[in-house]
Amino acid sequence: MRVVSRARTYGVRGVGALAALAVLSAAGCSSVVGGQSDQAAAGTVVQYNSPDEWANFKDVRAAFAEESGITVPNDVKNSGQTLSALAEQKSHPQADVAYWGSTFGVEADKQGLIEPYAPAGAEDVAADLKAADGSWTVAHYGVVAMLVNKKALGGLPTPRTWDDLLKPEYKGKVFYADPGKAAIGYYTAAAVNMAKGGSASDWQPALDYFTKLKANGAQAPVNTTPAKAGSGEYPILIDADFNGYAQKYNQNADLDVVIPSDGTVKVSYAVSLVKNGPNPEGAKKWMDFLLSDTGQQLFAEFYVHPVRGSMPEHIQSRIAPEAEYNAARNVDIAELAAVQGDFVKAYTAAISG
After folding, report:
1. What topology does CATH give the domain 143-266+324-352?
2. How far, in Å, are 159, 170, 255 from residue 167 at the CA level?
3. pLDDT 10s digit of each residue in the chain, 353 long?
4. I need a labelling partner for 342 at 20 to 30 A (CA). Which of 12, 34, 236, 312 fits?
């Protein structure tokens, strides 16, 4: 796993999303929406995995509809569910675009579920954050972090390291996404494994850690919800940093977003064109929009780290210091994807079997 430096993150909501479009237009930022005809792309584009609560997709979809006239419905699948649905529907695709943790894009390509399309702007994305043939392209990234609800901890100190979560005082208070079902869960395992001295060929440190974490009462739901960290139902949730910031600043939750001081990783999310999807022309317009200056700005407004451009100062001032983020490493996506199946089998047998 190698270290790759990337740019950082932004934040708008509802009407603010459309206001941001006007500001960007006035500033001369491009809003690339592709070269397809409006008639060909008219109607609806279905992206599996585009929840309102995730990465500012609600505002991104609204801004795209305002600009293009194309509707992208809300879809609450996670990465694993998206891959499974596309596999089941391979002979009769229902989706146009898939969004997922990048390793799932690699697997989908192997299964013949997606086809190459490099969105406009992909030329600015680092080579190791996209497939050479355009079968998947990273749209943004986060960092595996601890979302800590201080009120729910009842006066306990905020944990700062992975080992802190194993302490008796946090028994039954830790939640994380199932590594076999969700991208953030798999990247959580990668973060722990790296922090504990493991590698893509040696996952035993992570397995040992999760065994201890389970013994301390930790739970791994198929779908975790950041709002439950905000409400205190999850006193400690291991998730992407941007979900914590969104709860803290947009929902006024009493949260600390902790970048583990003993090591973590960046978790990248990619988009892919579904093979033989019902609206390929509209899908290409949507994917172009996600990589456009406007799309990247809107993602960043939800504290998501863009792959094109940089994070504005008003958001950067709200998140963890640069020194803490410098410790977050990127992973070799292809390498991580190649061993994902083996790790999931080992994890299931050892932890959730």
Report:
1. D-Maltodextrin-Binding Protein; domain 2 (3.40.190)
2. 9, 6, 20
3. 332 333 323 233 333 333 333 333 333 333 334 444 555 557 999 999 999 988 999 999 999 999 999 999 999 999 999 999 999 999 999 999 999 999 999 999 999 999 999 999 999 999 999 999 999 999 999 999 999 999 999 999 999 999 999 999 999 999 999 998 888 999 999 999 999 999 999 999 999 999 999 999 999 987 788 999 999 999 999 999 999 999 999 999 999 999 999 999 999 999 999 999 999 999 999 999 999 999 999 999 999 999 999 888 999 999 999 889 988 988 999 999 999 999 999 999 999 76
4. 236
Distance (Å, whole) CA 253 – CA 300: 20
What is the β-pairing status of strands 305-306 and 137-149?
A: antiparallel
Dist. CA 9–CA 33, nearest whole Å: 22
CA–CA gap between residue 320 and residue 336 (Å, rounded): 26
Tokens of 183: 């991208």
Domains 15-141+267-322 and 143-266+324-352 share a fold: yes
DSSP letter at 157 equals P
CA distance 262 to 162: 7
Task: Please give the single-letter amino acid code of residue 350.
Answer: A
Using DSSP's 3-state secondary structure scheme, residue 313 falls into: helix
Q: Are 318 and 78 in contact (CB under 8 A)?
A: no
CATH of 15-141+267-322, one of 3.40.190.10, 2.30.40.10, 3.10.20.90, 3.40.630.10: 3.40.190.10
Q: Which helix (H) or strand (E) holds 143?
A: strand 137-149
CA 24 to chain centre: 24
Buried b (16+ CB within 10 A) or exposed e, 337-350: bbbbeebbebbeeb
Q: Give me the residue spans of the domains in the chain.
A: 15-141+267-322, 143-266+324-352
What does the alpha-carbon distance between residue 36 and residue 58 come to, in Å, rounded to a whole number? 24
